Amino acid sequence: MVPETQESKTMGEKMQSVPKWVLYVILFICTSVPLFFPIPVPNKPFDASVDLFAKLMKLPEGSSVLIGSDWTNSTRGESGGEMEALLRILMRRNIKFAIYSTADPQAPQVAIDTVTRINAERKAKGQKEYVRFQDWVSLGYFANSEGENQAIASDVHKAFSGKQDVQPGHPPQDVFSSPVFKDIHKTSDVQLLILLSASSTDTITIERLNGKIPLAFMVTGVMVPQEQVYYQSGQLVGMCGGLKGVYDLETMMEYGLNVKGPDGVIHNVSDHVADEIPGFAGEQNFGKGAGYWPTLHVALTLLILAVFIGNLGMFLSRASRKS
Predict the structure, then answer these.
(1) CA 130 from chain center: how many Å?
(2) Which CATH number applies to 47-284?
(3) Which of the listed residues 10, 218, 309, 320 has the most CB atoms within 10 Å of its CB?
């Protein structure tokens, strides 16, 4: 029996027999290029992203917020981009923050590393660095998410009682002696709690804190359908969902909201929030969202193309056999 050669195969058979390594090389190239050469993607921010951006931009300067950082490096593609965008906004608006975690013992260090990275970015630009204990504090990890959220709802001081943090050049001190907590005497004094979650702590937070503190969620893409219910019911003041949410925030940071740019174009038009909210033009606004959102489009386009070619090859093979 004479073995079938590539030359003897029909066009349909050739289309179905592309070596796997070729597909992997094509995938690698197509998904790598957008990371090094950003591709602008037309964007209209979701209403939930608009509400979150507006809320963050309207916080009183110098006020303090709580950040529930319940993510680790396993979701850094989405959660890392969300955290970076959040920190850039808070630091530029001089908003102090306290970070706590209830999902994973690794989460506090991951959050600290992200703050350090954004601080390094600010230092390179000659901007004020956020000083630990003076401008932000790390409250650490709490093993019982249900209990800790209930404690925050009852009495924020008791919830974090005994917690200490380190100010550079000083021994550990009680976090309530930090300027971060100078205006927080009871739970209702907290301006906003932003939860970055890749686990079930979103539901726990809603159950314990809804109505006690204004809540905003930043979650992974697979969690968006559930969080959308909380947002539409008014339990969340805003939401950032997955890579799309990160890209929404980054574009609003760059171009503002309902603001005409130097080119005379309003890049982010919203009929949901009528206010004109300037962004931070010229700053380091684009990050993981601008890198990964176009890359995701390229990967999905390649997937659709591969499925189309495979099915077309199968159709042509069957047609040639019948003839």
Answers:
(1) 20
(2) 3.40.50
(3) 218
pLDDT tens profile 41-96: 888 999 999 999 999 999 999 999 999 999 999 999 999 999 999 999 999 999 99
**What is the residue whose two structure tokens read 């990964």?**
292
1 pLDDT exceeds 50?
A: no
Based on the number of CB atoms within 10 Å of its own CB, is 147 exposed (0-12), middle (13-18) or buried (19 or more)? middle
DSSP classification of residue 72: -
3-class DSSP state of 237: coil
In contact, 59 and 225? CB cutoff 8 Å: no
Helix axes 242-255, 47-57, angle to 10 degrees: 50
Length of the chain: 323
Q: Are 72 and 102 in contact (CB under 8 A)?
A: no
Whether 91 and 125 have beta carbons less than 8 Å apart is answered as no
Residue with tokens 């539409």: 232
**Domain boundaries of the chain, sorted by first residue:** 47-284, 292-323
Inter-residue contact 78 to 242 (CB < 8 Å): yes
* Long-range contacts at 120-125 (CB < 8 A, ≥ 24 apart): 121/284, 122/91, 125/284
Whether the Cβ atoms of residue 132 and residue 166 lie closer than 8 Å to each other: yes
pLDDT confidence of 323, banded at 50, 70, 90? low
Cβ–Cβ under 8 Å, residues 247 and 41: yes
Give the tokens for residue 81. Answer: 């981009």
pLDDT in tens, 12-28: 677 677 777 888 888 88
Structural tokens at position 220: 């992974």
3-state secondary structure of 180: helix
Read off the tokens for 321: 């056999």
- Rounded CA gap, 233 and 239, in Å? 12
Q: Check pLDDT > 80 for residue 321.
A: no
Spatial distance between the Cα atoms of 212 and 48, rounded to a whole number of angstroms:
20
DSSP per residue, 259-304: -B-TTS-BSS--SS--S-B---TTSS--SHHHHHHHHHHHHHHHHH
Q: Does residue 3 register a pLDDT over 80?
A: no
